């Protein structure tokens, strides 16, 4: 669903030169790109329906270069669009108005690892997995683990307050964010929080996390490091219908058990995953739950040295697993396999993290939704989502963070067929508003971007949204930072099917 | 803080609270719940409208299967815990006493404090380390801005990134940006047991080494405290004081390290055994405490540093890196025999009271704060000038959200 970008103009050529003249930015080549052919891959993120080319993309290496870029773009009244690895799923980096993407990809140094104080200072372009790998030899890791963790950056994770598979127990990005450095629209550099985290005063880092680069360009992040669990029990429960699987999730939460992760795949997804990874899933299954409990498990025998020793008595993790199995059986699980086999564990989680990619085998285009609902509502929600997609003539499958109530219905459509894309958007809208009606939210971890702008009014009153704009104005009075994202504006140029607007609406007057 | 001439307004509904704030004209709004920390200053030349949240004290919606509860800001912690206990759930926070010693004028026990006040002042206790952090616990909020408009932020779900998280902005803001009216919270299953291990260290160096070793061990403490030796000697449980190192001088005195666990009894016991088997711990005298004693000790650690200082003294809260805590506790205790200090060793938060202080002692206290680049909050007594901090963003937000400074201004930022 592509729209043509504005052709290169003298203005953009001049912009290219001006950006390259920023000290150090053009050095070595590739610090600035603005040729239309090169910009094609910068039209969208993982939400591929709306596309629009930025005027240029810059790749700064320092906070100072970012400040210079911001000052230049502000003087030219051009949008400043932060970019991590573009693994977002809500269109947060689409250049809906003329602007320049500021890629943090080259700000990828780990500046400090302080194991004693369980924290690390990283530049925003460090990938999520790289941080955990950097401390792999220690007892620590960086706990948020979005499926995109091989590619997604810490800065991008902060922008969307990313979750992941193990957030049920360990929390989302904001729970591991101690502080950050950010550059505002006026070029000022600020540090909020720090290695010790937040104590008193307004929790600015907590506010900024999840605002999708609309308040400032995050350049450095203080991350909390979390002890790696040393013992695991991983279970696979197969069900003949999704409702029973969802009821099991609700029952486990209600029993007060907090698994490290509790992920669900519906029948179509089970078959997609089985065909891709050959894990022995029954192809007749209508739902599968992958459940993991972890911990130090001292009763089970974790030693002071950190490794598991021979188990001589029932462990606390085994007791949790037994309780989970009982609840699965109560809800008529067709089978339940649980254990401590590390190879099986690795297979299951690898398959889960690669499930989205496997969908490409059966549909060239898909749109992933991200509503979150109270966990007790899951059984009815999953049924209703299927009915909505059926009504819109769309195939749908689900792989999601069931323990958090964070559903990810994946709507399959044909990108080359505008009607198909239109139906995908209509079904998405209906799904999101339905989830809000049962006490949920339109996005659990992917963010609003431009995709969900039209649905925030289901959750928030005009006064609520106006107050959020007021907060925004304290950071970015003229709304140059990733404009028209995250919060709806009545003058928004965003049309999900045709997002490019060569004549942007007037800027907001400075507050 | 100038006194008000009239009795506080006592709204009973959220809408009424918003109307009272909106209708208060140009006066300052001073919200009182449970007499939380004095974070705000008011212009003595302006009238003050005092609003109490104590009648906003209802549980609004509880969903035990979802482990969430929505409450009025004025509900007290103990009232909420009582309600949650019916479902065998709890809110895992153990904030300190505030306003002076329990029983003193204005003093409030941790249970008497309101949820709104606790959130607004980011008040937490030992459990902050293991589980109880307001960022994790607060899912959403209704709040009232300077114009008296009632606003919503967050949601009822455990994950949400829709809209700006103004509820996180208000955590720790002291009420200077808006008034918290309702809070939606995440709850947890009540643990079956609590046990702790007290280890008596001879020196701050030994305490620091022990804390570092515990943090590396495969255990999950719910709390990890360092209590100054002199402070610990006043404990009400008839526990012995930590030994001082032989030949130790000032700043090299004994201290107690308290490691606490929540969970199944056998899991707690096994983790305590594991801590005791750490190579460093084997040479340190230790005492294990079971449920009732551990709970009393934890409560004492939240209340003891709130001894009322006299006119020259101060109550304080400091925030440093975890690795600085042991040495800082020792240096502070060496300032005066009248100084009490406990710390959340892993979170880097110290709380204490300097009951009586000469000017030289206050200057020495300030000097220690500066040398440690500690964040300082004076909780009682005369403010001590904190080290310079970047408050640019907070100040911008204050000017934007409350341009007429109706909610007062921050004393400490």
Task: Give an account of the 3D structure.
The complex is a heterodimer of chains A (511) and B (413). Chain A has 511 residues and is an alpha+beta fold. Helices cover 30% and strands 18% of the residues of chain A. Chain A contains 15 helices and 18 strands. In chain A, the strands form 4 sheets. In chain A, strands 15-12-14-13-17-18-16 form a 7-stranded antiparallel β-sheet, sandwiched between helices. In chain A, β17 (395-400) and β18 form a beta hairpin. In chain A, α8 packs across α10 (316-330), α8 (242-254) runs antiparallel to α13 (378-391) and α13 runs antiparallel to α14 (418-437). The longest helix of chain A has 20 residues, at 418-437. Chain A is globular and about 65 Å long. Mean pLDDT of chain A is 88; it is low at 1-8, 301-313 and 499-507. By secondary structure, chain B is of the alpha+beta class. Chain B is built from 12 helices and 19 strands. In chain B, a hairpin with a 5-residue loop joins β7 (138-144) and β8. In chain B, α6 packs antiparallel against α10 (325-333). The longest helix of chain B has 13 residues, at 204-216. The radius of gyration of chain B is 21 Å and the shape is globular. Residues 386-390 of chain B have low confidence and may be disordered. At the A-B interface, β9, α7, α8 and α15 of A face β8, α5, β10, α6 and α8 of B.
